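Suppose you are handed a protein chain with no further information: no name, no annotation, nothing but its sequence. What can you learn? This example shows the usual starting point.
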Amino acid sequence: MRNAFNTALIESARNDESIVLLVGDIGFGVFDSFRDEFPDRFFNVGVAEANMVGIAAGLSMSGFKPVVYTIIPFLIMRAFEQIRVDLCIQNLPVILVGVGGGLVYDTLGPTHHAIEDLSIMRSLPNMHVLTPCDPSEVKLSFNDSFSHRGPTYIRLGRGGEKNLLTEDLIKNRLPEKINVIKNGKEVLFISCGPILEETMAALDLLSSDFNCGLINIHSLKPLDKNSIKDQISLYNFIVTIEEHSIIGGIGSAIAEIIAQSSSNSRQLIIGIPDVITTEIGKREYLLGHHNIDAKSIANRVKSFILS
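A reasonable first move is to predict its three-dimensional structure. Written in structure tokens, the prediction is:
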């Protein structure tokens, strides 16, 4: 996903001289090509993330289109006040790109895990929140962000993710719209971000027992509420899956929609519990530890439906 973002960034910068990139002393190797091609539009501000957001705000007010990139906990948690005051209150078109969504910085421990960011960003007025699920959707999400007049947060994984969406789904994808990957009759799975891969695998495990549908949501804010309501009305069971805390993410967003509609659907929210992840291991191990790997998802859904 990082490489896909870099490619999209370079393509956009070639067509728009106002685009500038700010990084917080990371991205070495990833952005060498951007730095070499646009040396006057690349700024490494060092380990000073709050200052970086402030600089981006100033550049935006001067007519530039700043793109800010660093690891999510350093970008969102460390610079939260500047994001809220400098960007959201003034509604400035700055694009925040956070890398390391969920548990992908696995062995680096809880200081590097990003499991509260969607909740934090969803709470901010004027902020758009985009969660591409694969490299092909990164480019579209990045391009979408330029159509928003205010700040945008794009949540990336790390690297090595494979493309999950078909060409038709990518072709038909529009800003703020959901991707209906599979139609069903009994259970609707709703996923966002790279955890879609585990979700799709869980669907395969359940295919002989239940008629399942699947949608991918790449825009958590704004949500395409009408399309989601239409989908929810077709199912008795709704299962949301996210590599994020069960508080404030896609599960909470869907629960808000269900609560404000006439739906009688039951919802199961699958995500990371309200805990600090002190276990150390690779992402696959941590997904299993939190019961959000494909096999655990399938077992939890069976228990939910049959209870």
